[in-house]
Design a protein that fits this description.
Number of strands: 14
Radius of gyration: 23 Å
Order of helices and strands: EEEHEEHEHHHEHEHEEHEHEEHEH
Number of domains: 2
Helix content: 25-40%
Strand content: 15-25%
Distance between the termini: 40 Å
Strand order of the largest sheet: 6-7-8-3-9-10
CATH architecture of the largest domain: 3-Layer(aba) Sandwich
CATH topology of the largest domain: Rossmann fold
Shape: globular
Mean pLDDT: 85
Low-confidence stretches: 1-5, 7-11, 328-345
CATH class of the largest domain: Alpha Beta
Length: 345
């Protein structure tokens, strides 16, 4: 299935990140199979897929941490092969886990990164405090990072990725391991980056994250981009509505599944622990009435019922045959590893 959009014409503005035909093989395994990506300026592109799909391998290739076997990468107009230094100078990278020195304070961490970028002491101090205030860390600036919460360490890591004011920020599963509050804080930070004109390439396996943050989404599975578009466009492609209900008694779940099978347009999914069944339907209102009537006639108490649009998980299931929570093919020895930290000169 070819789902790629046509490449932009000569009149279109050049994307902040342009990837064409990117491939990478580890041993006999092709982790990337010729992927194409565009991240327009001031835009968030989410690369969505399960663990092992190739997301982190793509990030490592784009950010010069892994040499691709073939393909081209341009970041802010700099070609990866001809000018890797220009690529590194144009982007900031935050990996799956916050790469901070826990023995140093927040201020010392950022000042160290700034000096690694070649800033003088005065400029490094100024930039460090500017970012500490921006990320609401100025009140703990002199506390060792080892005493920070997970969300605070993530904000400090993101601040480090921005120390040189890059035009492109690459975030590899930035909320992995965070609690809900830390995840919301990180989303707020990413939203602030984009409102300031920064372009963001975001990899994630969290559907809600892609739905919340991304201007567009590229779905990757087994090293290939299998679909792309906005969240709404991808959901529209799946089509139809979803009828979901929760029964009072677990013993009635099979009866509910049978009613959904009759009224739906495909086999229903079920969650025995939650006593929930769900199916795609083509005529939502009629299916809702038919299912509730059938269950009422059989004396099945229904606690909750909902008629809703497809989710990104429905999209992924339709495209790949499995949910994003399932592991995909192994993307090579670097799959799932901690590549953390900022891209540095």
């Amino acid at each position: 299935m070819n789902t790629d959009h046509d490449p932009p014409g000569p009149e279109a503005a050049a994307p902040a990140v342009r990837v064409r035909g990117l491939t990478k093989t580890f041993g006999g395994h092709r982790a990337l199979k010729g992927i194409d990506l565009d991240v327009p300026a001031g835009h968030v592109l989410a690369l969505l897929g399960p663990n092992g799909a190739g997301k982190t391998t793509a990030v490592r290739a784009i950010t010069t941490l892994t040499r691709p076997d073939a393909g081209t990468v341009e970041v802010a107009g700099h070609d990866l092969r001809r000018n890797p230094g220009g690529v590194r100078a144009s982007l900031g990278l935050s990996g799956q886990y916050a790469a901070v020195d826990e023995r140093l304070t927040g201020h010392e961490n950022l000042r160290m990164v700034a000096m690694l970028y070649g800033m003088g002491r005065k400029e490094a101090r100024r930039r460090s405090w500017e970012l500490l205030r921006r990320f609401r860390l100025d009140d703990v600036a002199h506390r060792r990072a080892g005493h920070y919460s997970g969300g605070m360490r993530r904000r400090l890591d993101l601040a480090g990725a921005l120390i040189a004011d890059p035009s492109v920020v690459v975030l590899d599963e930035p909320t992995t391991g965070l609690d809900p509050r830390g995840r919301m804080d990180t989303w707020e930070v990413i939203g602030g980056l984009v409102s300031g004109g920064t372009s963001v390439l975001l990899t994630t396996q969290y559907l809600e994250e892609a739905d919340q943050l991304a201007d567009s989404i590229a779905v990757i599975d087994r090293g290939e981009v299998i679909a792309r578009g906005t969240a709404d466009e991808l959901k529209t492609r799946v089509g139809g509505e979803r009828l979901e209900l929760v029964v009072e008694h677990a013993a009635d779940l099979e009866t509910a599944r049978a009613a959904l099978l009759v009224a739906g347009s495909g086999p229903p999914d079920s969650d025995p622990q939650a006593r929930r069944a769900r199916a795609a339907v083509t005529n939502g209102r009629k299916a809702l009435g038919d299912v509730l009537t059938a269950l009422d006639e059989q004396g099945v108490p229904v606690l909750d019922v909902a008629l809703c649009r497809p989710t990104l998980d429905d999209v992924f299931l339709e495209l790949t045959g499995h949910h994003t929570g399932d592991d995909g093919a192994d993307a090579g020895p670097d799959a799932g590893a901690d590549h953390g930290g900022e891209a540095r000169p």
